[in-house]
Amino acid sequence: MTSRIHALPTQLVNQIAAGEVVERPASVVKELVENSLDAGARRIRVDVEQGGIKLIRVTDDGSGIEHDDLALALSRHATSKLQALRDLERIASMGFRGEALPAIASVSRLILSSRAAGSDKAWEIEGEGTQAQPAGLSQGTVVGVRDLFYNTPARRKFLRTDKTEFSHLEQVVKRLALVRHDVTFVLTHNGREVFCAHQADDRASREHRLADLLGPAFLDAALYFEHAAAGLNLSGWVARPAFSRSQADMQHFYVNQRMVRDKLVAHAVRQAYQDVLFHGRHPAYVLFLDLDPVLVDVNVHPTKHEVRFREGRLVHDFLFRTLHQVLAEPATQIPDSGEREASDAPPPKSSEVGASVASGWQTNMSLHVGERREAYRAAEAWQAPASGAVAINRATAPEDASDTAEHPLGFAVAQLHGVYILAQNAEGLVVVDMHAAHERIIYESFKRAREDEGIKSQPLLVPVSVAVSEREANLAEQHVEVFAELGMEVGRLGTRTLVVRALPALLRDADAERLLRDVLADLAVHGDSRRILEQLNEVLSTMACHGSVRANRRLGMEEMNALLRDIERTERSGQCNHGRPTWTQMDMAALDKLFLRGR
Ligand SMILES: Nc1ncnc2c1ncn2[C@@H]1O[C@H](COP(=O)(O)OP(=O)(O)OP(=O)(O)O)[C@@H](O)[C@H]1O
Ligand SMILES: [Mg+2]
Hints:
By secondary structure, the chain is an alpha+beta fold. It is built from 20 helices and 23 strands.
């Protein structure tokens, strides 16, 4: 059943191309808005009817299209953005393939109207191959797309409800508005304004806009940072792990202002959050990576959602290290609602990473990550507790309790119901979840010890024998070296009996039997030794949970102050290993407000 080879008609060629580029109304909007951005628009309006299926109209104030170019704009492989192969290697514009408009026009009723900058007349055409007619337009370009997929019923069937299509479309406009804060975006649906994001040129107004687009809770939890190294520049807002989400729906990553979904990027970010996020939770962020366009290939897929980095490893490393460092920020205040002031233009609410211990806590000083690291190192009095004593017993209470500048978390005043430590610092009241905080401290010191000279173990005065199943006993026997790595010495006494002879020095007071059972459970989950060694941090986290002070244990003042000092010194101490906050601050203003007290 062979037929003769023949060239496909243009319309069909375009429809085939549309299959790749135009999946749904949201993809039409992406292409049209990107064209407006490429034309230098400062104001872009998107009007939509019935989820975009009935109508999408994008109006911009960009440079416009000359009369003679109008028809070309609708023909395939015609673009003003690319001349030669070497341009393809350093693309600065959003578009370059010259196929979006013809593809869209082939599956809808499209009208393109434009007035080129400097021209005194506007023109419009309806579809490819038609004559340009005079139009009434004072500047820029308007593209109207009606009845999407009216002539390709098979594709139309894939469209969902108006509501679903609109929510995809809205997400696309938001994503573009998040990165191009120099442009005003207006979105309307069925004649109703959905949002209007005004141009923003400083950080305060950018954050205002960010809060409008992603909600104020994101901004409250966000850390802002900028970091540049080796020609790579990363900046943006990352939410503290306590603000994690059950969906990966607040992850906005841009490479040279283009939103991408990239495996390498996703992996690096996930790794940076690895042990501060609870299993199955997703971080939230808006991140901008900028680098020389030569180092990144955007011509991977027609939708341009994927990129290929020339130096993949370097980029991965840079992303991971930078974010890991940002998230490790010790003793960064977790804002509470009491901090918010009602005003028309609120000041930036996100914390600036850089309020380092050395330079004075909660200053507005902006240190970049590199400098911050220096400052932190200088201030860092941390030594892994080589003596092996549980961290909480080390430090002693201060002589001079007014010395809060050096001690951002201040000094304990009481313990509440055996769960919380109340402390007074320069700002006001600090409330610490003692179990969560201690757990994080132990976990971090475990990790440090493992990286340095290994986890120290301490022999038990009286070894503890533990009855287990035969399977568990076998498991333990196979994994003696894993136990050793964890600072535990475990032996087999009989078919169903194990003995614990030594515990990690950090956990010398822990319940040996329970600890052994939990580690065995972890071993059973992770399977072979190699995997366990990879997952050892998880096991350490389990152990830390056991070793940390339990709720309902009474602590003396000295112990409480020692815990506060440890929190200040410990990386990532703002959250416990499961991503819950470990402490929070209520400043005097917030307390005053509770009592309607003016100062
Ligand atoms: N809003 C606009 N303002 C000014 N010129 C535009 C606008 N939209 C399209 N054009 C012109 O029409 C041409 C074709 O647009 P089209 O989107 O089809 O291709 P492209 O943007 O060059 O590449 P891609 O297919 O990758 O998007 C563009 O190169 C540009 O010159
Ligand atoms: Mg385009």
